[in-house]
Design brief:
With about 200 residues, this protein is an alpha/beta fold. The protein has five helices and eight strands, in the order βββαβαβαββαβα.
């Protein structure tokens, strides 16, 4: 009989003060010695799907840090949060607004992050679905990146973003709506693959 120890998945909610002077609730969970996955979540769109994704990541021995995708957060303020939590870096994951923050971090703090998984969000230099370039001076990302897309417009933005990734770039259509079991399985798999590739 084989016995296995389940990872410590106890969620640890903390409030961390940013360098910009406001507090952010963060949630750190999963095995203490696991590779870190930094997930930016939009609190107004929070679904149980992301909770299930995190559970799957914990089973894969990955530790997760959830930071709300607060529009006031900057790359510097996120680095300050990571420093306070003594987290040197990890894989970045973001959906929509959280994806934009993940791209900015991966581009500006390249030595800290091992890769990037974004959903329906392109590099800041790539024109978005409305044709707007958010940051003409944003550096290219020097890490591997995965872009998951749900529409043709998001697919076109992701294709344009490939020019600004100087690592392996993977583009995939979402397997289903964000609350579906197909989406959960696909996102968890993409995160595990990216986490283990470096």
């Amino acid at each position: 009989m084989i016995t296995a120890t389940l990872p410590n998945n106890r969620e640890r909610m903390r409030h961390v003060d940013t360098i910009d002077g406001f507090g952010v609730p963060v949630e750190l969970s999963g095995p203490d010695n696991g590779r870190v996955v930094i997930m930016f979540e939009e609190t107004h769109r929070k679904t149980d799907a992301y909770d299930i994704v995190r559970e799957r990541l914990h089973v894969a021995m990955l530790r997760t840090l959830v930071i709300p995708a607060d529009p006031r957060l900057t790359a510097k303020s996120v680095v300050g949060i990571l420093d306070q939590l003594k987290i040197p870096g990890g894989l970045l994951v973001g959906d929509r607004t959280g994806g934009e923050l993940a791209w900015n971090l991966a581009a500006s703090q390249q030595e800290r992050f091992t890769g990037l998984v974004v959903i329906d969000c392109g590099h800041p230099r790539a024109p978005d679905i409305d044709g707007v370039v958010r940051d003409r001076h944003c550096p290219a990302v020097q890490a591997d990146a995965t872009a998951l897309v749900s529409t043709r417009a998001a697919h076109a933005v992701a294709c344009e973003s490939k020019r600004y990734v100087h690592g392996e770039f993977r583009l995939a259509e979402l397997a289903g709506p964000r609350r579906s079991r197909h989406f959960i399985a696909q996102l968890a798999t993409e995160i595990v693959v990216r986490s283990l590739s470096r």
